[in-house]
Design a protein that fits this description.
It contains 14 helices and 15 strands. It has 430 residues and is an alpha/beta fold.
């Protein structure tokens, strides 16, 4: 099948794209205030249903979801086995607080399962509802650990330029994307960023503030900034510096966790073990909101050192039984269907196709690892125009600024669908 034969519609790269006759009736914005969108925008494509790696809008327009929605739908859309697991739990007990003195079976079981998958020894799991909550929780736990260890002066949290760590105040303070900080006033103190790939800058800052550093926070692969894998040896050296200076290492694995790199966690892929791991997204493949923090041995020992100590942190839905049931079923599906191996194979095929386009001069370059990739565009190309053209042609990608297109397909994406994803980009860039 030729690339042209695979296309759903002809691509017009610079034409405005509107899928269907209209996305929203009326000339004024609707009541729904959309995240990361212009509040003045009047129309949005409405996704109505999905199956596997395919989704459809309300006009019936079929699209390959090459972004797993927003970096998270590992097992694909529309799974009846997930729906059954969620409904089954709701029929027993939909939700109940896990504040002292209560717990529930699914939360306990999921915590044990996640702890068994991580390379962090003697791990425990704190549950939240999102990646943003997970990051804030990890930052608080890092500072709290230092206090419990008798070092309250250790408040400084160091993160990297280009890092995205959610949108709560802690994560906003820690992220290295300046535009996402504008307009929100004074953020957290004692949170600073270092150049993303400069291990010497990190080393110098930690040496200068050796007695003040609580933790280093990093995405193993910087995702939302445009998919930037670490320089060789960067994470190893960050681990060494944290050990040298008594700081904790926090991995933000909200995107990379639960198979995205072909391993359960990026910590496995890069063979670097953090003290705290923030997770979300892939833990349920988006079937229910769920996030959390995997707590390593040093943190656990500090929290458990005083048997009368009370952890005064948590959320109404921490350990939500229905969300936990979704997480358990999601992990079961990943294991039974060998989807981590599938992710690696899919990623290899996608990378090979994207690099062929770059080698032909269609885009500037390709970067990524595992099953998450980005294409860096030429100066004469525009990511938003290309994204819209590809949506029109039946492939959903994500534009990062004007110079990057990202790919993060579900692990169930077929070889033919991967080839179509590549062909649509090739046609779009001409």
């Amino acid at each position: 099948m030729s690339p042209q034969d695979r296309l759903v519609v002809q691509i017009h790269v610079h034409a405005p794209v509107f899928i269907g006759p209209d996305w929203h009736n009326g000339a004024m914005p609707g009541a729904f205030l959309h995240p990361f969108a212009k509040p003045s925008r009047e129309r949005f494509p409405s996704i109505t249903h999905g199956k596997g790696s395919l989704v459809w809008d309300h006009t019936g327009h079929e699209m390959i979801d090459a972004m797993a929605s927003l970096w998270y739908c590992q097992i694909g859309h529309g799974r009846g086995d997930m729906a059954d697991a969620i409904a089954g739990q709701i029929r027993q007990i939909e939700a109940y607080s896990c504040f002292d003195p209560f717990t529930n079976g699914p939360a306990d079981e999921l915590a044990e399962k996640i702890a068994s998958l991580t390379p962090m020894p003697d791990a425990r799991v704190f549950f939240a509802n999102s990646g943003s909550e997970a990051i804030d929780s990890a930052m608080k736990l890092a500072r709290l650990t230092q206090v419990l260890d008798g070092q309250p002066e250790r408040r400084l949290i160091i993160s990297r330029v280009r890092g995205y760590h959610g949108t709560n105040y802690g994560g906003t303070s820690a992220q290295g994307l300046p535009l996402n900080k504008e307009g929100y006033g004074t953020l957290l103190d004692d949170v600073v960023q270092v150049p993303a790939d400069d291990i010497e800058a990190l080393s110098m800052l930690m040496a200068e503030h050796s007695n003040r550093v609580a933790a280093v926070l990093t995405e193993p692969v910087q995702g939302a900034a445009g998919v930037y894998p670490p320089n060789e040896g960067y994470l190893d050296e960050a681990r060494r510096l944290c050990d040298q200076h008594g700081a904790l290492l926090i991995f933000d694995e909200v995107i990379t966790g639960f198979g995205r790199l072909g391993t359960w966690f990026a910590a496995d892929h890069f063979d670097v073990v953090p003290d705290l791991t923030a997770f979300a997204k892939g833990v349920t493949s988006g079937y229910m909101p769920l996030g959390g923090v995997i707590v390593g041995q040093r943190v656990s020992e500090a929290l458990e050192s005083d048997r009368d100590f009370i952890l005064r942190h948590g959320y109404t839905y921490s350990g939500h039984p229905t969300a936990s049931a979704a997480g358990l079923k999601n992990i079961e599906i990943l294991e039974k269907n060998n989807l981590l191996k599938a992710a690696s194979g899919m990623g290899y095929r996608l990378e090979r196709g994207l690099r062929a386009i770059a080698d032909d001069g269609g885009v500037d370059h390709v970067r990524g690892v595992g099953a998450v990739f980005a294409v860096g565009l030429r100066d004469d190309q525009n990511a938003v125009h290309l994204r819209d053209a590809m949506i029109e042609a039946g492939v959903i990608t994500r534009a990062i600024g004007t110079d990057t297109i990202t790919y993060c397909p579900p692990f169930v994406t077929t070889d033919e669908q991967i080839d179509t994803i590549v062909d649509v980009l090739a046609e779009a860039v001409g």
